[in-house]
Amino acid sequence: MDIKITTPINGEEIKELKAGDKVLISGTIFTARDAAHKKLIELLNKNEELPFDITNGVIYYVGPSPSKPGMVIGSAGPTTSYRMDPYAPQLMDIGLKVMIGKGMRNKEVIDAIKRNKAVYLGAIGGAAALIAKSIVNSEIVAYEELGSEAIRKLEVKDFPAVVVIDSKGNNLYEIGQENYLNSL
């Protein structure tokens, strides 16, 4: 069963999510990869405002391809999340609740997830064209000079993802591996 989530994120519904849950997100999410994350942290370190409100927000680690005529966005598959690990804890500490990407996260990120009652969701790599179908609007809000890595505001409807690390730190990658090894 898919759990429907609407942005901005409600802290109570985040606490109910468990590693392995399938979710469908609707509402506003923002895109950012490592170059944009670096710029966001530089702003925070200078006590300047971010170009968007991150409070109870969602960041999707993606650099979409250019859109074809008549399309809102091009392929929009997740990028590997570990490149955002140096920046994610500081963003969670100021209100980020959901990160979407692919791959493992380091201990500092997992600690920040638990401390901030946030979650890390996995989007399916290789399903970029399918994921793009859940994006109903896209506009660049910051760092246009970064091209595909510019920060975009996306309006999504039933964006599919899986809870990889829940707010208690339970990790689907570890649970799945353990369940598999115990089944042998």
Notes on the structure:
With 184 residues, the protein is α/β, with parallel strands linked by helices. It has a single domain, classed as Alpha-Beta Barrel (fumarase), CATH 3.20.130. The protein has a 5-stranded mixed β-barrel with strand order 2-3-4-5-7.
Describe the structure using short key phrases.
alpha/beta, 6 helices, 7 strands, 184 residues, fumarase
Report a brief summary of the structure.
This protein is of the alpha/beta class. 28% of the residues lie in helices and 27% in strands. The longest helix has 12 residues, at 34-45.
Task: Give the terminus-to-terminus CA distance.
Answer: 27 Å
CATH domain fold name: fumarase
User: What would CATH call the class?
Assistant: Alpha Beta
Instruction: Describe the largest sheet.
Output: 5 strands, mixed, barrel
The CATH H-level superfamily is Fe-S hydro-lyase, tartrate dehydratase beta-type, catalytic domain
| Beta-strand residue fraction | 25-35%
Structural category is alpha/beta
CATH architectural type: Alpha-Beta Barrel
Strand order of the largest sheet: 2-3-4-5-7
What value does the average pLDDT take?
Answer: 93
Q: Give the number of domains.
A: 1
